[in-house]
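Extended Data, panel c. Modelled sequence:
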Amino acid sequence: MVKIYSDKDADLKQLNGKTIAIIGYGIQGRGQALNLRDSGLKVIVSELEGNDNYKLAIKDGFTPVDAATAAKQGDIIQILTQDHAQADLYKKFISKEMKPGKSLVFSHGFNIHFKQIVPPKNVDVWMIAPKGPGALVRQQYEEGKGVPCLVAIHQDASKHALKDALAYAKGIGGSRAGVIQTTFKEETETDLFGEQAVLCGGCSELVYAGFDTLVKAGYQPEIAYYECLHELKLITDLIYSKGIDGMRRRVSDTAEYGDYSRGPRIITKKTREEMKKILKEIQTGKFAKEWIKENQNGRPKFNKYRAASAKHPIEAVGKKLRSMMPWME
């Protein structure tokens, strides 16, 4: 049975006297850093000098330091840079500062699970992963609410890693909504699968396929855009707030019937078998090795994919149509 912690299970006093170093002042880093500071905890931030995030950190009242300084001064070191940059960052600037009594923290388990970062056994390693972007983490905190989080303990050298992690979750507001216990393995593998098979890969290809089908059949690209991309927000918003069954009961009966009778013809047994293959590639580390190698080689496939995506006809049509909708700005 799933274990869910709440505010009553967390105590901010657990982090009294500790310095939390947030490395990476992007959207997630900013949200977590501001919330922790507003919760009365001592926070320092690290960002590359001179970039936009560095300037924003100064505007927010922080004095950014380099990663090595943050790792040296921090008792709890939270790495919030992009996945592909974390291992190199850790090896160059953080590893030598990982002394007994310190905690290495993540909001995604990729580098720990796939052993790109291997911390010494005498430090705590844990994860607090908000299930929402940093801007929402900040917004909900300011409204007195919170974004649900995941908590996972990889190493518990201190024997109080879970208490520290839950206190951190309380500091960013997550325990107000609930903190679900998981593992680095489960969080990493399910996160990658969701991105690849459904949220990004699956959804994007479904939109492309629908748009291309209508345009090739002679329909106007503008109409195809509205029907296959623009209105997707209506459906995802309903699913987000009401669940799939709730969405189906809020669209037309015609749409609901088409959902039941035609949906399984799109997501077929063959599609589901391919999803299993994708999951297996994640579980075995095949995808991780491929992505790490891609970055080491200068991202040739990634750059090719990105360039091709930008040239798809749906992008030109969308740019024109979105200019007619000022509320999107």
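Residues 140 and 146 are 5 Å apart (CA to CA). This feature is highlighted in the accompanying rendering.
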